[in-house]
Every structure is written in structure tokens, then in C-alpha cells.
Design brief:
Blueprint: E1 2-3, E2 9-10, E3 37-42, E4 48-52, H1 65-78, E5 86-88, H2 91-95, E6 108-110, H3 111-119, H4 124-135, H5 138-151, H6 174-187, E7 199-202, E8 205-208, E9 220-228, E10 232-241, E11 244-253, H7 256-273, E12 274-280, E13 285-292, E14 298-303, E15 307-312, H8 313-316, E16 320-324, E17 329-330, E18 338-346, E19 349-358, H9 367-380
Helix pairs in contact: 1-3, 1-6, 3-4, 4-5
């Protein structure tokens, strides 16, 4: 059965498909970018809109600090820490090079200040204070970070430190960083706000947020930049426009300027070229199925969850929605059992297949009823 863009039914019996491709693994569009690795994810649908070597191992540099912050956020949310708690500053933290929050050895620093020191100032020293405060040592904390990454589905990630300091075994992927960004935004909406702060002053030293997207008026409110000689310039960002949120990851760029312009260009392209389209609501009837030898002649076929898809706008005009199922379906039919498959297809778009279920239970006719139905079929043919 084919449903046009407005879901008007034109019935065409088809055999039930056995394959199932679970949405949201939609096909990412071709888009040229100078980033060595890139990924764009729509948070609402989970669809990948752009990917370039998104599963290739890379060095995350200071984008690592998103996981350090995540570990803090998780403990704050569960009550293990509060924003007013303090951690002591060790000599190791104080001496750490690179970008700094400028904590002083022997001081105790509030957790809230450490959050800002990490996500706004990108302080390597702040990450060590947090690591030692939570796990006793930075190496032990890195093990916890890796464990959490794998728990979140970041299978290509291994952390060796809390800051992103260069280490040949400290690796991730663009897709994994997008997964971390989505988890941060979704799981900690009240704490995510720190990523949007444009400056923070600690020990009378004011530093600006290095995320260039925050200053461009593109709807961005996070997350984190990174740079080492080995990684190049990278950024994990997120922007929200008209209730739709995208996450972008780029890495391996050649300069600060390239990181800024390329991340902005990709976000604009993603919003301009892709749209979200709601096809069905949870529990909505898609079609009625004919039932053979049942106490009822038809059964409603339902979709179990909302179906919202991300699709290139130009592909939307040629989208085809169809249903694959056996016709008629033999009784008995059990409510909630899969009896059909919804197929969404369009040019240059990976086909989406969603299981459909019976909306009611239809019992099989008794012996007399089945006999009568068989006679009727022989005399009149199948009217279902």
C-alpha cells in the first residue's frame, strides 16, 4: 500500500518484508568540508545529517573536557556533589601547563567555579582538581571517564587524562563526541547552561569562552573547542532554532579562523537543507488490514511511536510512504503483534522501515464459521 505525502491511501497488496532498518540511521547528505572529521546530528530525531570519517579515531584535545564536566554534572544531579562543595588544589594541578583557570596550590575551589573554569576557560588545571577530587588521581578518573563513555555508546573512545593533554592512546571519534554532547544536553538541562557563558573571572583573571559559535547569532549555546598540534582545531557545538536542536562536531582544521567559519557554515547548511517532518503520532491508525477467517473482517494497523523524520528538503517532495503486509492476514490476530511494515523512501535517502502492529485482537472463526466462509469464497470469491 502506498501513502502519498498527505497519507491518502492507494491500496496495493504487498508481501510482508522480513528486513527491518531501524530509524534514525538516515543517509547523511554529501557536503564538502575542510574538516578531517565531521558529524551533524539532529537531536530531535537522532538522524545523522552529515558525516565525514565520523567513526575514524582522532585526538579530541580539550573537547575531552566535556566528559570531565559530564562526570561532575552526573554527581550533582544524583546528590553526590553540590555546587558549593570544594576540592583542594594539588601541586600537580597548579603546575599543569596549557590553558589554565589559574587555581592556586593549597586553595579549595568551589565545584561551580571549577565547572566554569572547565567549560568557559578550558582550564587544564581545573580538570585535574576535579579528577583528583572525585577519583583520587587523574589516571583513576580517566578510567571512570572511559567507562562512562562506553556506557553512553561511545565505543570508539578511550580517555587517558581529564584535559585532553596529548597522549597516543587518548582517542575518540566525531560521532562519539556528538553522542556525548547529546547526552549532556538531554540529561542535564539545568547544568548545560554553563556552556553558554561567554566569560568567567577567577582570581581576578577574566577569560572569554573560546567557542566562536556563541558570538555569531546562529542560536548556539555550547559546547567546547579543542586544539593540539596533533589534533588540529576542533569544535563540538550545538544550536537551537525554532525548537529544533542540532549538534555539530568538526576536527582537524588548520586554524582558529577555519574552525570558526567552517562550523558556522555547516550549521547554516544543515538547517537550510534538512527539515523535520512528522508523519504519524503514537498509536495512530495507518491502515485497516483485511483478516481471513476472523470474527471481524478487518483490524486497524497502528504505529507504536511518533514518527518524526529528518529528510533533505528537496527529497521531501518525492517522498513515498507505503505499507508492506500480507493480504489478507490469517486469524487469529493478537493486539500489539507486528503484522506490517511502514516504508518511507525518497531519492538519495536511506529507506526507513518501521514495524506496525495490530490494534485489536481478532479471534478465529469457529468450525461452522470457517466452513461458511470457505463456501462463500468458492461461490463469490474473496471480497476482503
Amino acid at each position: 500500500m502506498v501513502l502519498d505525502n498527505f497519507r491518502r491511501a492507494v491500496f496495493t497488496p504487498l508481501i510482508l518484508a522480513v528486513g527491518f532498518i531501524g530509524y534514525p540511521h538516515s543517509q547523511a547528505s554529501a557536503f564538502e568540508t575542510s574538516a578531517l572529521q565531521a558529524a551533524v546530528v539532529d537531536m530531535q530525531t537522532g538522524a545523522t545529517l552529515l558525516q565525514k570519517d565520523a567513526d575514524t579515531a582522532m585526538f579530541p584535545a580539550s573537547m575531552t573536557k566535556m566528559m570531565t564536566a559530564y562526570m561532575l554534572f552526573e554527581r550533582i544531579k544524583t546528590g553526590g556533589l553540590s555546587l558549593e562543595d570544594t576540592f583542594p588544589v594539588s601541586e600537580k594541578a597548579w603546575r599543569k601547563g596549557g590553558s589554565k583557570m589559574f587555581v592556586k596550590v593549597g586553595d579549595r575551589v568551589k565545584v561551580e567555579d571549577l565547572i566554569r573554569g572547565i567549560v568557559v576557560q578550558s582550564g587544564n588545571d581545573a580538570t585535574i582538581v576535579v579528577a583528583e577530587g572525585i577519583a583520587g588521581s587523574e589516571s583513576a578518573f580517566a578510567d571512570l571517564m572511559t567507562e562512562k563513555a562506553h556506557e553512553l555508546g561511545m565505543s570508539g573512545t578511550t580517555f587517558r587524562n581529564a584535559s585532553g593533554w596529548p597522549d597516543p592512546e587518548h582517542v575518540t571519534t566525531a560521532r562519539d563526541l556528538a553522542t556525548l554532547a547529546v547526552a549532556t544536553i538531554r540529561n542535564f538541562p539545568d547544568l548545560y547552561k554553563y556552556y553558554s557563558e561567554k566569560s568567567f573571572t577567577y582570581n581576578n583573571i577574566k577569560q572569554g569562552n573560546r567557542n566562536p559559535l556563541l558570538y555569531k547569532g546562529v542560536g548556539a549555546d555550547g559546547l567546547k573547542t579543542g586544539h593540539t598540534e596533533a589534533s588540529g582545531y576542533g569544535l563540538t557545538g550545538s544550536a537551537a532554532r525554532n525548537g529544533r536542536r542540532l549538534v555539530v562536531v568538526v576536527n582537524g582544521l588548520m586554524s582558529v579562523k577555519a574552525r570558526s567559519s567552517e562550523s558556522e557554515r555547516i550549521i547554516d547548511w544543515a538547517y537550510r537543507s534538512w527539515g523535520n517532518y512528522k508523519l504519524f503520532s503514537r498509536g495512530e491508525k495507518v491502515i485497516d488490514a483485511n483478516v481471513w477467517l476472523g470474527v471481524k473482517e478487518t483490524a486497524p494497523v497502528l504505529i507504536q511511536n511518533d514518527l518524526l523524520i529528518s529528510m533533505p528538503r528537496k527529497a521531501r517532495k518525492k517522498m513515498k510512504v507505503s505499507v508492506k503486509m500480507q493480504d489478507p492476514i490469517p486469524a487469529p490476530v493478537v493486539a500489539g503483534a507486528k503484522i506490517a511494515t511502514l516504508v518511507v523512501a525518497a531519492p538519495d535517502f536511506e529507506t526507513i522501515e518501521i514495524p506496525l502492529v495490530a490494534g485489536i485482537t481478532v479471534k478465529r472463526l469457529g468450525p461452522v464459521g470457517r466452513l461458511n466462509e470457505a463456501v462463500r469464497h468458492l461461490v463469490w470469491g474473496n471480497k476482503n
